[in-house]
Structures are given as C-alpha cells and as structure tokens.
Amino acid sequence: MDPRLARDPAAIRAMFSGVAPRYDLLNRLLSLRQDVRWRRRLVAALSAAPRGPVLDLAAGTGDVALAIRARAVVGGDFSLPMLRVAGRKARALGRRVAWVAADALALPFRGGAFAAVTIAFGVRNFADLAFGFREIGRVLAPGGILGVLELQRPARPTVAAAMKAWNRAVVRPLGRLISHDGDAYDYLPASVDTFPDRLGIAAVLTGLGYAVLEGRDLSGGVAGLTVARWEGA
Asked: How would residue 127 be classed by pLDDT, with cut points 50, 70 and 90?
C-alpha cells in the first residue's frame, strides 16, 4: 500500500513539503476557485466561538489563518516549506500570525489555550482521526469551537460521477504537469475515497465529547463543513 494512504506521517509531510511551491495555484485551478468560498464558510463558523485566540491547524500556506480577523491567530503545520510560504504571504499582506511547527497528534500548546480550532483539508491526513480530535479537544477551552472543512465523496450519483471524471481528466494530469510531485495528485482523490464523509466525522466527534452544531454539504457534496463545540472533560 502507498504509505500516504496508510497516513504515514513522514510520507504525508514529505508530500506536502514537495507540493508547497505550487500548492495555492493548484488549489485554485483544481477546485475552480471553489476552495476560496469553502474557506470563507469555515471562517464564518468562528462566530459561534467564545472570545479568545484561534488555532488554524494543518494551516498549509495560510489561507484560513490569514482570513481570520479580529482575533489572535496561530497557524500550525508539520511541513516547514508550507509554513515558509505562509510566512511570505503574511508579510506581503502586513499581517501578524504566529506560525508554529505543530503535529496535530502532539500539539505543543497548553490545555485550553484556544477558543477555536479550524482545519481545512487536513483531517483526511491524520494518522489517527480520533486521537487527533482528542488532542484538539485538549487545547480547546470549555465551549470552544472546532470547524472542519474537508473533501468528501459526494452522495449524489451524478455529482460523484462528475467528480470521478474531473479527477481522471483534470486533477491527475494537471497535478503532474504543474506540481513537483505529481503522485500527490494521485493521492488526493484516493485519500478522499478512503476517508469518512462529514457524517462519519460528526459521528467520531460526538463519541469524543463534542456537540455537533452544524453539518453542511458544499458544492453538491464535493466538500463538507462540520462545526462542533467541545464539551468534553
């Protein structure tokens, strides 16, 4: 099995480090800029969070962290090349974000440090989803909000068929043409096919002490948004 599909952390880190220089360009092209709209929906979910700082986890090149206003923001990712791109973008915008090298399964923050945690397209790469959500709960303040944006298998057959054709005709060829790691864009659709949809994510969260506040399909179910409140001990 491809070690990336086994969610091997070293393989996942190497993959994202390799695609960092072209990551933003490919996100926009391969989603037809829908990823920008999806991230806005994720940031809007912070309205349900208590006052306090936000951790954007699996921050990548910083798009979500840089879209959060009126709060202190920490952007955490375990790929240093991704964080370097994020830092350059922040400096160009004159924004102050604390960028931190952080593994989602061993976060370097004290308990209860954050009013909210956001994750865009990151949980699909966790080596252990439940463990990661428990670790996020540890760093959330009581009543803190977790917002998860993730790609998923569309439930509607027509959308699923269109998505499969798009992956075959566009995602894989364009990823190989533009990216320094074309295999990463073989991993992308395969990882979606082997990961729970937002209903599965909600079930895991509920079992860990979160109260799910919102679950929403985006763009016909190509992506899913899940918003939950931490109510665990």
From this structure: very high
Question: Whole-angstrom Cα distance, residue 63 to residue 222?
Answer: 19
> What pLDDT, on the 0 to 100 scale, is given for residue 182?
67
Question: Measured between alpha carbons, how far is 125 from 127 in angstroms, rounded to an integer?
Answer: 6
Cα four-point dihedral sign 44, 54, 151, 156: negative
Who contacts 2 (Cβ-Cβ below 8 Å, separation ≥6)? 11, 187, 190
Q: What dotted CATH number matches 9-230?
A: 3.40.50.150
CB 186 within 8 A of CB 38: no
In 3-state terms the chain splits into helix, strand, coil percentages (rounded to 5) of 50, 20, 30
Cα separation of 48 and 30, whole Å?
Answer: 31
Contact call for residues 126 and 132 (beta carbons, < 8 A): yes
With CA atoms as reference, report the closest residue to 178 among 27, 2, 9, 7: 27
Q: What is the pLDDT of residue 122?
A: 95
Residue partners of 232: CB distance under 8 A and separation at least 6: 137, 208, 209, 210
